[in-house]
Write a structure and sequence with these properties.
Blueprint lengths: L6 E7 L2 E11 L2 E7 L11 H5 L5 E5 L1 H6 L5 E6 L12 E6 L5 E7 L4 E4 L17 H8 L1
Antiparallel strand pairs: 1-2, 1-5, 2-3, 3-4, 6-7, 7-8
Length: 143
Amino acid sequence: MKFSPGDIVEIRTPGGFSYVQVTHNHPSYPEVVRALPGLHGKRPTEFDMLARSQSAFVAMIPLGGAIEKRRIEGERVARTSIPEEHAAFPTFRMPIHDKQGGVAYWWFWDGQGLRYSTEPDADAEKYPMREVMSVEAFLKKLA
C-alpha cells in the first residue's frame, strides 16, 4: 500500500481511532507522517479541520507496509491539503556521541543535506529524531 502526501490515515488503537497525515515521501526512507491530535470514538466528519490542528508528533514509519502486513490496523480515509507550516520537508535531528557517551554534536537532516552543530539552539529540541520509528513505538505514541 502506497500513501501520498495529503493522505489521512485512520489507525485503530485500543483507545479509539487515531489519525495521521502523510506529509512527504522520500526515495530512501519510508513515509513521513504527522500525528493529528486526540483519540476519537468515531470517525470525524471534518478532516480538513483536523488536518489544520497542531501535530502531536512527526515520524518516519513504513506505514503502508505495516498496514499491508497487518501490523497496524488502518486505512486511508481522506485526502486534505497539508498545512503551510508542514509543507517543507521536516528537519530531523540525530546525536553523535563521544567515547564517554555524551553528545559531541548534533546532525540535522532536511531530506537533502546534513548540517551539524556543537551548540544547537533551543528550537532544535523540537525536531523529531532521525530514525525510522518501529511500529510498536509508533502505536505507543499514538495511544
